[in-house]
Each structure stands twice: as C-alpha cells, then as structure tokens.
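Why run this: before we spend reagent on co-expression, it is cheaper to look at a predicted model of the complex and decide which construct boundaries make sense. The entries below are exactly what would go into the expression plan.
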Amino acid sequence: MPLDDRYQLAFRLYPYARSADQDAGHPVHHPVIVVGGGPIGLAMALDLGRQGIPVLLLDDHEGVGQGSRAICFAKRCLEIADRYGAAGPMLDKGVVWKIGKVFHDDRQVFEFNLLPEAGHKFPAFINLQQPYFERFLFEQIERERAKGAPIEIRGRNRVEGVTPEAEGVTLDILTPDGPYRLHADWLIACDGAGSPTRKRLGLDFEGRVFEDSFLIADIRMTGEDFPTERWFWFEPHFKSGASALLHRQPDGIWRVDFQIGWDVDRAEELKEENVRRRLDAMLPGVDYEIVWTSIYTFQCRRMRQFRHGRVIFAGDSAHQVSPFGARGANSGMQDVDNLGWKLGLVVRGRAPERLLDSYHEERAFGADENILNSTRATDFITPKSTISHVFRNAVLDLAERHAFARPLVNSGRLSVPCTYDGLSLTGEDALPGAPDRSRPGSPCPDAPLGHGFLLERLGGDFVLLTIDADAPETLEADGLTIRRVALKTADDPTGALAARYLGTATGAVYLIRPDQHVVARWARFDDAATRAALRRACARD
Amino acid sequence: MTDLILTPNIADPDGFYAALIAAHDGLSDKESAAMNARLILILANQVGDREVLAQALEAAKKSD
Ligand SMILES: Cc1cc2nc3c(=O)[nH]c(=O)nc-3n(C[C@H](O)[C@H](O)[C@H](O)COP(=O)(O)OP(=O)(O)OC[C@H]3O[C@@H](n4cnc5c(N)ncnc54)[C@H](O)[C@@H]3O)c2cc1C
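The model came back. Tokens follow.
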C-alpha cells in the first residue's frame, strides 16, 4: 500500500523528516516505541517523556486528522491532562454546559441541570473538538521537549510489520524514502480501533455490533444565538432520525447527530442536499454552514488481553465503546495514566515486569464497566425489540409527569473513572468512618486548598497524604522516595477536604499512586503497613 | 394512608432497567405480554394496599 493519507489533516504538526536511523544499516534500538499519534499515543509519549523515559512515537500521518469525533472530555480526563500540564488551553477553549433537555416526539420530557459539585478544579466535562484536544497535547510535548524531555515524533512513518521477541519487538516501517527497521524493548500500540498491530499479531477483538448508523454533522450557526444546552430527542417529530442530538462546541459549532437506521446508502446520505434536508427539518429557519459530516456505526468490544509480552495495547486499539457516554478517549486517557507510571518503574528497574499485568487487570476492568454503561445507553436509545421499544416509550411517557421515571431515561451517562475494588494492587482500608468515594482503588476526588487544589499537590509520584496526622517527611523504600503531602482540615475552609477524605475520622494517612488512585488508608502512620502497601502497589509481593 | 411513590426509589436504575429488558430476551410479543401481566400481578401483591394500587392504576392510565 502506498503511503497516502487515509484522512485529511486539521493541523499539520510533525512533517516527515528523514531520521539518521534510516541510514544506520541495522535496526536502531529504542527503549519505548509508541505506534499511533491519536490522543492516546500523544498522551502516552507525554507521560513517559515527562518521566525522562526516551520515547519514540510513529504516526502514518503528519498531524491531527480533520473531523471532530470526540467532543465531550470528562473531569478525570482533564485532571490527567492537567498532571501533564496540558489542561489549561483545553479549559480555555472548551465549552462548559450544565443544562440538558430531553424531548420525545414534539414534547419536552424533562430538563436537568448537572449541578456540578463545588470544590473541583475541573468541571464535570467540557465540549471540545478532538483535533484541539490532540493539538494541545502535542503543544505540551513541544514544551516538554524544550525542557529536555526525550520525546521524538516521526510523521509519515507507517508501521508495516511487528515481530515480537522474548525481550523486545522489531518493527518494519515505511516512509516516503522507503522502508527501514527499528528495535524496541517495549511497543505501545495506540493505533486505534482498526489497530493494524492487533491484526498483524492475529489477536482477538470481540464484542457486540449495534445495527444502526448515525449521521453526524458539525455545523456553524450563522444566525441566531442558540443556548449552551444539550438537547436530545427520542423519535423527534421532525423525522430526521429515530433519535437526534444537538450539542455545542467551541467556535460557534454545533454537533448534530441523527440515528438513521442500519441499511443506508452512505454516499447518498452524505450528499449535502440530503444532510440539509434533515437539518432543515430539525432547525427550521436557522442559518448554518456545514463544517464536517460523517456516518458511523459502532461496536462495543475489547481485547481479551491488553498485554502481549512486550506489546501493550492502549485506547481504542484495546477497547471500543459506543459514543453514548463519551467513554472512548476519556477511558483511553485513563489507560495512559495507569500504564505510564508502571512502565516507567519497570523500565528503570524499580518494579518487576509483572507490574504490567496489573495494567491489563485494572484497565480491562475499566473497559468492561465502560462497555456496560455505553451498551445500556445504546439499548435505551435504539431499542432492538418491540417490547424494549414499548418499555422505552413508557419510561419517556411517565418521565414527563413523574420524577421516579427520570433516572431510567438514558441518553448516555457521564463518563466517570472506575474504582479498582479488590484488584491485585489495591491495599487495605483501615480508616473507620471514612467516605466510600475515596476508598482504596478510587481515583482521588479533588478538593479546594485555599488558592489551589488537592490534585495539583499530589502530582505524579507515590505520595503519603496526611490530614491532621503525623508521618515522616519522606520514606525511602525499594529504591523509591515517597514524599509526604501534609495537610490540615483547616487548609480547606469549605470543609470539602474533610468530607471527601475523613468522614467521621479525626485524622488520616493515605498512600496514593502516581496515577492518583488510592492504594490504602489508615487512621495513623504505620511504617510497616505503609511499606507493605507500597510493595503490593508495585507488584513486588 | 400511604401514597403511591412517584419519586425515584430504585437503587441502580440502569441495572434494574437492563435486567427488566433482559428478562424479555427471546420472547415473542405474546409471551412478553404474558410475562408483563405476571410481573404486574407479583408487584401488585407486594404493594398490597388497595388504595395505593388504585393510585397506580390512575397514574398508568394518564397517557395522551
Ligand atoms: C462520532 C464519535 C464521537 C465520539 N465522541 C467521543 C466523546 O465525546 N468523548 C470521548 O471520550 N470519546 C469519543 N469518541 C471516541 C474517540 O474518538 C476515540 O476513543 C479516540 O479517538 C481514541 O483515540 P486513540 O488514540 O486510541 O485512537 P485514534 O484516534 O484512532 O488514533 C490512532 C492513530 O494511529 C495512527 N495509525 C494507525 N495505524 C498506524 C500505523 N500502521 N502506523 C502508524 N500510525 C498508525 C492513526 O493515523 C491515528 O493517528 C467518539 C468517537 C466517534 C466515532
């Protein structure tokens, strides 16, 4: 296959440049190679590079693809991006919304307000076109490189062959100057849902296909000012689809999404006059320009194993969900957050290789939860039998008049991170009276600390968080230095810190992982217990 | 007198809804209708109170 672009670029960020590796005459060695420069590959490179681990990213294009795809980026995803220093521009550019309206036919069923909890640095989520999200990650990579982070990106480098070995991987790469080979200790496959790496290794990717197509159009409203709300129609009276969604993005762009059935003639449906026919029925008298259109179908599936020796899969290559609930890119960012520190410790010889098996254990658990949630939303939006259609409409009917039926209406649930309850790295909960939401395995909930926020203080290393409790300032164990973050309940006059971490306890000691998930918690510092929990969190036991 | 509960009262609503739909998997429309009838009778017996049942019948009827 020639090296032609498979999609148009929104931003050309890393033009092809010949590398000395291509003239070496033998496969040059790299510790870590990432295949694929989508959001997940870029974040992976950023995470490793910031730790000082040399990382080479190969992408078969020269930048970010056109077409927005993902638009909803959730709080946890932004918190992760913030740890990498990339969230500021995302928040500045993104649209924050709170009000959602649900319609059935020609009636409004109900309206909701997300009423986000106070005391978090980031909103529940923002709407932002995926190309911006990727560009902001890339720009952070550039800033980190300027500070010396060992990250290299090679555009128009298509991986064409992957040969796994006991202690590494050899890659065959095609460039505009012809082929060359590279060798890596570790290969992270972030090459998307159609992952050529996965296919080349003959690995499974099983799950459920949903027999429906969705036509998406990003349009720029040129006339009246529309409110910043999410509108979702079940069986809309304007008949542009079996369901329809209207959602705001930055730059005055709106995402419209129509459910148009399974057997459709894609080329026909994508003709501008046909797209306009649907849009005009939905938005009579509104002036707009069409910015981007696409038809997608979807599947909910995952690989049985995310780690295959020295080849590790992350993002869409490992798992795919329906877009309802925005769990694609959001969960991929959590993969990176999870894998980054583990691979960092293993590459530096600070943890055994089997720590990486916990990446599969934890993120496959997360993928299953995401698949479950997005499958449920999809089943509600696109009922597949007469009886489920009857129940769906009964729920909508009742929801119009009775509050009890509203929680049953499912047009996509907010993407939230999972808690690694009972998994191998998760330690003990020895803090009586403490709240459930910060139990071992959970991602730390943020809390305000005067002029800043808790998560900023945690950073990206193992830390010992103490609240109204004593502990040594640092702890040396297994070649790691654990830093103490010493807080008092008085540091947060709003009381959120105490409510989220103490409950009825009078003091607490939390051991927290580099990805800001809780390992274990105690009422007071116990040296032996802390060391045991740390060993467990690094898979040393 | 107890009143019919019309505010949210089911923990894990998504899980409940999925189980409800799954209970109908593979049934014909007629079998589904019969399944629903049995389910209503079982739930009605659980409620017991005739006054509440009368209110439930009223609430279910009101559809335009
Ligand atoms: C309509 C739609 C709406 C969505 N909405 C949301 C949302 O609101 N929120 C959300 O979180 N997610 C959403 N998603 C999902 C989100 O877009 C994906 O989860 C996300 O793009 C996955 O990122 P990735 O980096 O894993 O893969 P990709 O973005 O697919 O990137 C893969 C990269 O690998 C490169 N590549 C492939 N093969 C090779 C090769 N052989 N050699 C070198 N490079 C290669 C590709 O060119 C590409 O750059 C949506 C998806 C769709 C389709």
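The interface with chain B takes residues 373, 376, 379-380, 385-388, 391, 395, 397-398, 401-404, 406-408, 410, 413 of chain A (CB under 8 Å). The domain at 5-95+123-206+300-369 of chain A is CATH 3.50.50.60 (FAD/NAD(P)-binding domain). Bring this page to Monday's planning discussion.
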